[in-house]
Known about the structure:
mainly beta, SPRY domain-containing protein 7, 196 residues, globular, Jelly Rolls, 40% strand, 14 strands, B30.2/SPRY_sf, SPRY_dom, ConA-like_dom_sf
Amino acid sequence: MAALFTCCFGCCGEGGSRHIPLKEMPTVQLDTHHMGTDVVIVKSGRRICGTGGCLANAPLHQNKSYFEFKIQSSGVWGIGVATQKVNLNQVPLGRDTNSLVLRHDGSVYHNNEEKNRLPANSLPQEGDIVGMTYDHVELNLYLNGKNMHCPASGIRGTVYPVVYVDDSAILDCQFSDFYHTPPQGFEKILFEQQIF
């Protein structure tokens, strides 16, 4: 009986510290290893300024992803999804098969083709929140929590959230702790090990 108490207290009590720290899950943020040469990333990987584009550090593996961008300062900008083959030094994106983006003028481009367009009275302005859902087929847009009914598709392969800026634009990325509740069935981006 004494051996039982010794083992129990020796393993769990003050006699022996066998604390095994949990592995901290990485945070989804803008990836400084996948950005244009004139891009500046600040605010713990959440804010982009300068000139060029940047991918997030997590691909969209899950079935239904949601993420947001806040327009802090207007200018030339674009947001959407892209493969790692996208040229992040060439703005605007959407000129090739490697990106599908909403541009600051309300147009949605992929492969140098306009796929859709926001209504003229619903163009994102400074201070607005643009939400995006992606389900591996369609990218959908939300302006300040309202569905814009502006779907676009066509991109293939493994994609990442992407954002580009130019002409003094500053955008903040929100990959969790959203301003608006994601649409039903959609959730924050998960790293692959969090899915299983």
